[in-house]
Amino acid sequence: METASNRLNGSYQRQREELLRRRRPGKDDESEMQRLVGESQSLENSRNAVVGINAQLESNLMHLAEQRQKLRGVNRVIAEIGNSLGVTQATMRIIERRDVTDGYLVGAGMVFTIIVIYVVWFVY
Fold it and tell me: Residue 17: what pLDDT?
């Protein structure tokens, strides 16, 4: 009587022998070696591509960090300009008030000059 383990060992042995018969030394070994060399080269190319992509990513990250620093500097400058604009706006209001006052003074001076010219021209 054949037990289950004997049947498994027998089928294992048959499969093993079949695989070994399919693999014959000689021409097949060369083609298998060429396939392995091609696979190795493909893996090496892939590894080099990944290394290149990784280097590019690191470079992009460094550029982003530099841009962040520059933008922080720009943010400070904009904040300073905003602070100075508050002073500038107050100064502009003073200048505008002064322009209005100067306009009244010029108008009054023109009226006074016309009166003086009229008096001088027609009275004397």
Answer: 77
